[in-house]
Amino acid sequence: MATVADVQAGTHAPTPATRPAPRWRTFPFWRWAILLIAGVYFLIPLYAGLRFAGLKAFANVFTYPGFGSAVGLSLRLALITTILTLVLMVPTTVYVHLRLPQIRRSMDGITILPIVIPPIVLIIGVLKVAPSFLLSTPYLLALVYVVLAMPFAYRSLDAGLRAVDLKTLVEASNSLGAGWPATLWRIVLPNIRTAMLSATVLTVALVLGEFTMASLALFVTFPVWIVQFEQNAGPVSTAASLLALFVTWLLLMLIVTVGDRTARKRGGARVALFTVAPQETRPTAGEPE
Amino acid sequence: MAGSTAQVVAPEAPSSGARPSPVSRSLRRSLKWLGIVPFGVYVGLGLIAPFIAITIAAFHNSSTGAFTLSNFHAALSGTYLLGLKTSLLLSIASAIVPGIFGLLLAYAIFTAKRGNVLRKVVITASGVFANFGGVPLAILFIATLSTTGIVTGWIKDLTGVNIWDHGFTLYSAYPGVFIVYMYFQIPLMVLVILPALEGLRPAWREAAQNMGAGTWQYWRYVGGPVLLPSFLGCLLLLFGSAFAAYATAEALTGGTVALTPIQIGALLNGNVVAGQENLGYALGVIMVVIIAIVMMIYVSLQRRAARWLR
Amino acid sequence: MTTNAARNAAVDSARRARGTGGTSVLLRDLSRSFGTTKALDGLSLEIAPGELVALLGPSGCGKTTALRIVAGFETADTGSVLVDGKDISGVSASKRDMGMVFQSYSLFPNMNALDNVAFGLRMRKQGSAQRRKRAGELLEMVGLAPQARQYPHQLSGGQQQRVALARALAIEPRVLLLDEPLSALDAKVRLQLREQIRTLQHRLGTTTLFVTHDQEEALSMADRVGVMRQGRLEQIAAPDELYDDPATVFVAEFVGIMNRIPGELRTDGTVTVLGSTAPVKGQEPADTGADGGDRAVDVLVRPEGLTLQVAEHGNGIVTTRTFLGSVTRVGVLLDGDIAVQVDKPSSEAAALAPGASVSVSLPGQPVLVAPRRAVPG
Question: Which ipTM was obtained for this model?
Fold first, then answer.
């Protein structure tokens, strides 16, 4: 790999350098070993699922009894949850960033709470306190899902807001004469579009895959429906599972591609896929020229 | 919304519409908190209230309503104690093993050049797999490793051994649930440890080399110690994730495995003897206490890590 | 005063311990490409024992790459680095016995200042007590003894870099390498540290290579300054020589401020400019292909090299006046739309208001010339 530089006219013949044994090169072996093991472990179940289900099962999934209503319910819940989550969290996060920065720390703590209280515990609590008119409708789930989605939504939005230094932008906008509504509409929202998209997709993925609460509340959402067939019709439930995973994957790819494209265009924050764990933005060590 | 930027002469003051009079100064200050009210109400109703309700119920007898500690006694004995122990051990195992593997995996791609395709693929894959879980995952593993599973068949064809005859089972905590948990725990680890790895400034590595340190010495004196709080924090996160998991184990074992979340579900889905709900609530409270402790340690570790990696 | 004395004593004892005779460093024909970009293009440079050489240039000129090759963090594609006559190209970075101070954030965050400074000694297997003593001496040397037990995140940027300097010097390196160590610091701290680095280096007599893009830093600190551009060394000389006798147009304009005034180069080697004639200094423009007749050139002259007088019908009009302390820089627009800057003592410049008609001339000293540059649209 040592490229001999072109000999410049007039200089001495270049002395070939003795390169020190590159340290890094001794690694690749174990690096590829780990990646191989990981690849095998993660891909085999997917392949096994495909083999087990067989292609016919995929067609059968759509016509199986209950499929339509279960998927329909899941989608409706996803829609309502997303709207509610955004309506609740976007103004709240923006407001905290602009007017109540001192409680940012507490907000980090509060939004960790839904993690601390596991869904299983939360749903039994909700079922206990919910008024009866709510208990009879599956939309109760949507209300609870908003609580589940809160950490993801908050962190996505928070990261997005931090990356654009919202306070300065709003002050600039105000000093140029824009009132609050205009500032919110023209300045704030466009700059957190990616974060909102990320929050949306995570919420949708969460709702579509949520089983614990739905099953205990006795509503037949898509995951609950899949389980009902576990014993009787293996291939069909396997095919349905693969479909569910595929949809999740599509949704997450959506965030990544749109997020990357926007980041490249505007140099904004790169979207971090999931984690509830607070990811501090670290300044990249500048490459010294 | 009509663009109203045209004719504003005096720009609106950024603060809310309170009139600038001396009395209203404190009023304005308290009005500031109004904006957080909707959120507060929602969290209160949706999160705090349910939890308080079940905590209270946990201290009361299911049938008579009298104050009692018997629910907690029952929760900490017999099959429920077994469930707690199994849950704790399983969660610890599901934190340490994926933790180490995830760290190695993250390190493997971290040492690859920036912008590398491999890096991007693994990171994206981790993001996706960390969100797979629950029912679909359980069913896939059934398709893979059940008695009629594909891989079980491969192993039988290759070696003539039927793993199920030799004690392998999917339907109990080990190895079944454990193997399945790895599927989302490992990616979770990769995602959370990567930022910490990237927080290791190259200047430290180079300064250490410049001072005469080899690779091992760098990790022993600088890299390791700096990474340790983050690593431990990640392990705690994984613990919490495994401990609270319900759907995967439920779908995998049909609710038969002795894990606390499953037992809670069994007590409260109405299929079991009625009058046991408060026992379920007590178990729930115990779960929350455990996770709360874990999370508090996690937060303090993160704070220490952030200080150093400033 | 006592802390100063203690500091000096520490430095002197260190110096005595090393003995006299420093290390010489020779960079021979270094070349390095990153992909299609050529970062270094046959760089050759010699540093005498105990000398402080600064590499100066705009970003991307290759100076940091050169430094990193000397340190062992990069390898040259061709060429070699010799220390005391021995080729060290095959020696790994951890065995080169050089102390490096990085641009920023290089202190190990999990160790306090004392342990950071002692780290190199620990790697050299010195005993614990001995390490701490030596580290303490060095912290004393940079004036941070009270901060010995503090952690990097508790120290200011300037303090951190002082600790980094102490750490690099603790191992008594043969060569001291500094990679833009001051560029991340506030102006005032920068000046203080500049002094300190220079003083320490002088007392210890360590051969030093210093990389920077700040010419003031380079000129004030170095024994010799090498100006680099696009991977090559344009000129290496003592600061005053660089200023008065730049070897190329790039160096002339990079170091200090240069005025460019169109003139005519005559075949007898003088140049006509601003209505007078002046001899040409040293170098001719590269493309001397003149076959008889005058050639259009630009005359390069420093602001202090022009004379300015108020004149009724002069050749220019004052456009700006910038007060710089003892000297005021007067911007003048000459006939023919030529903008120049002239330095005058502030007391005299007070009379020159924008719009005043002035006369700018050359006092007749030898000047530099460069090929006429087309004025952009």
Answer: 0.79
